[in-house]
Amino acid sequence: MGTYYDSGRPHAPSRAAATRRASPVVVGAVLAALVAMAIAWHAGRDGQTRTSPDAISSMDAGGGGMSALADPDGSGQAMDRAPRPLAGNPVPRYPRAALRNGSEGDVLLSILIGVDGRPMDVQVIGRSGSQDPAFDRAAIEAARQWRFEPAMRGGEAVPSTVHLPVEFRRG
After folding, report:
1. What pLDDT shows up at residue 58?
2. CB atoms within 10 A of CB 148
3. What distance in Å separates the CA atoms of residue 97 and residue 76, rounded to the nearest whole number?
4. How far is CA 54 from CA 45, 97, 111, in A?
5. How far apart are CA 71 and CA 97, in angstroms?
6. For the chain, what is the HEC assignment?
7. pLDDT (tens digit, 9 = 90+) per residue, 72-105?
8. Which end of the chain is more exposed for a tag (fewer CB within 10 A), N or C?
9. Counting beta carbons within 10 angstroms of the beta carbon of residue 7, is it exposed (0 to 12), middle (13 to 18) or buried (19 or more)?
10. 84-85 vs 148-149, strand pairing mode
11. pTM
């Protein structure tokens, strides 16, 4: 049998016991890194789709990024007010396949707006970046749900056309 001998000296913790404790600084750094990675993953997973801020602000001002027809019906009268987008229009969803592939691109839409402020016709008139047709479909699907204040001429709502860029960018 073995005998236990105590020399009276304090016992130093074993090397295994000493490595079990982590510095609070290290724990905080690891937690911060995990939170940053979760945020980056979430942003990359959803992607970003937006209409150009310049186009939206110029739509409110009636020019620039949006081109409304000055005389859509050939009456010879200019519009009193160009169409304006209403708040709460949905943002196009980033196509999942394009997000997985890392594709990015821009789609330029031509939207014919009726007297009720609803899109009557939506067509792609230009694109840049990826030529993925999923971007076209996503932009058209969202644009069909958009609502506008119709263009006005002589105090009456009139049909008009706007050109609006939609950007598909990852994080």
Report:
1. 36
2. 21
3. 47
4. 26, 28, 17
5. 41
6. CCCCCCCCCCCCCCHHHHHCCCCHHHHHHHHHHHHHHHHHHHHHHHCEEEECHHHHHHHHHCCCCCCCCCCCCCCCCCCCECCEECCCCCCCCCCHHHHHHCCCEEEEEEEEECCCCCEEEEEEEEEEECCCHHHHHHHHHHHCCCCEECEEECCEEECEEEEEEEEEECC
7. 555 556 778 999 999 999 999 999 999 998 999 9
8. N
9. exposed
10. antiparallel
11. 0.58
Residue with tokens 């263009």: 151
Tens digit of pLDDT for each residue in 46-73? 445 555 434 443 333 333 344 444 445 5
Q: pLDDT at position 68, please?
A: 43
Give residue for tokens 């027809």. Answer: 69
